[in-house]
Amino acid sequence: MVDLLGRAGLLEEAESLIEGMPFKPNAIVWSALLGACRIHHDLRLAETAAKKLMEFDVEDSG
Questions:
Q1: CA separation for the pair 14, 29 (Å, rounded)
Q2: CB 3 within 8 A of CB 13
Q3: Are 27 and 56 in contact (CB under 8 A)?
Q4: Residue 24 to residue 27: CA distance in whole angstroms
Q5: Taking the chain, what is the end-to-end CA distance rounded to the nearest angstrom?
Q6: What H or E segment, with its residue span, contains residue 14?
Q7: What are the pLDDT digits (tens) for 10-60?
Q8: 8 A C-beta contact, residue 45 and residue 15
Q9: Number of other CB atoms surrounding residue 60 within 10 Å
Q10: The pTM is what?
């Protein structure tokens, strides 16, 4: 769903969906949002998504 909203340019709606999830969003969700930010040139939201992705990298590194 995040990917579909992102492709449609509805980045704020995608962000709201992520924030309202009843579970912790995984790296796939944040990657989808980051890709949409790249396509639609949303630097602010891209920074947020990238930071969230880096948190997963730190968690996985041990």
A1: 10
A2: no
A3: yes
A4: 10
A5: 30
A6: helix 11-19
A7: 999 999 999 999 999 999 999 999 999 999 999 999 999 999 999 987 666
A8: yes
A9: 8
A10: 0.88
